[in-house]
Design goal:
Elements: E1 3-4, H1 7-10, E2 17-19, E3 26-27, H2 34-42, E4 45-48, E5 53-54, E6 57-63, E7 70-76, E8 82-84, H3 95-100, H4 105-116, E9 123-126, H5 128-136, E10 147-152, H6 159-169, E11 176-182, E12 185-188, H7 189-193, E13 199-203, E14 206-210
Parallel strand pairs: 10-11
Antiparallel strand pairs: 1-5, 2-4, 2-8, 3-7, 4-6, 6-7, 9-10, 11-12, 12-13, 13-14
């Protein structure tokens, strides 16, 4: 089995939503639960998992209507109908979501955060249940849902900027979980902003503890490690 951790793998980042035609497009490690077909019939989207590409197949996850309904599979890149990134969802507001937004605090938090980040040079967007609902129009978030966010930070984020983000993004009506996506993987904004070291870095091959989420390590190029302009 060929594992691809190259540039091609980075071209399919975790949390992107991929549209497919149906369950038959999936390559599953075992029998798929009965709810998978129903879930894809309602919303034919899967989310890219943080795992290696296997022989041209993208690691994906299917989410059902219940919190414990999650299933891992693979989707060959040739069968992808379209892709939606978290950044594309910042301005999304389907009619179904507008009708529910008053009952789901996470949507109010997202509106607040959009205003706070409007003049900041950041690439960011919602993931998790809120992102899925914005992309598909299918009710996925609940009144108890956290707002999961991804911020892409290709260059080192200064400590002061991380502290500002943590303070300002945590002021809404719902809990916010922010992941900083660096060239090496993803790290929790809360851990990084609090100065905790080492921090847990989620990578394609699994989580590791690191002192610097942007440092490629000994013997690697350090190009692009200057602090981001924030």
């Amino acid at each position: 089995m060929h594992l691809d951790n190259s540039t091609e793998a980075r071209a399919w980042p975790a949390h992107d939503l991929l549209r497919l035609t149906g369950t038959a497009d999936l390559v599953c490690p075992g029998p798929a639960p009965s709810w998978v077909e129903d879930a894809l019939a309602q919303a034919p989207f899967v989310v890219v998992r943080r795992a290696p590409i296997v022989a041209g197949m993208i690691p994906v996850g299917i989410r059902g209507s219940l919190r414990n309904q999650r299933f891992a599979a693979y989707l060959h890149r040739s069968l992808i109908v379209s892709r939606i990134t978290p950044e594309q969802l910042v301005g999304a507001r389907p009619a179904q979501v507008r009708a529910r937004s008053g009952r789901i605090p996470a949507f109010g938090t997202l509106t607040m955060i959009k205003a706070k980040l409007a003049d900041r040079p950041l690439r960011w967007g919602p993931t998790g249940s809120v992102g899925f609902e914005l992309a598909t129009g299918l009710a996925a978030a609940t009144p108890a849902s956290d707002l999961d966010l991804l911020i892409r930070v290709p260059k080192r984020l200064p400590a002061a900027a991380a502290e500002w983000l943590l303070a300002n993004l945590s002021a809404g009506p719902s809990r916010v979980d922010v992941q900083l996506e660096t060239p090496r993987g993803a790290v929790s904004l809360a851990e990084y902003a609090r100065g905790e070291r080492p921090v847990l870095l989620r990578q394609t091959d699994g989580p590791v503890l690191v002192f610097d989420p942007w440092d490629p390590g000994p013997g690697s190029s350090r190009t692009g490690l200057a602090a981001v302009n924030f």
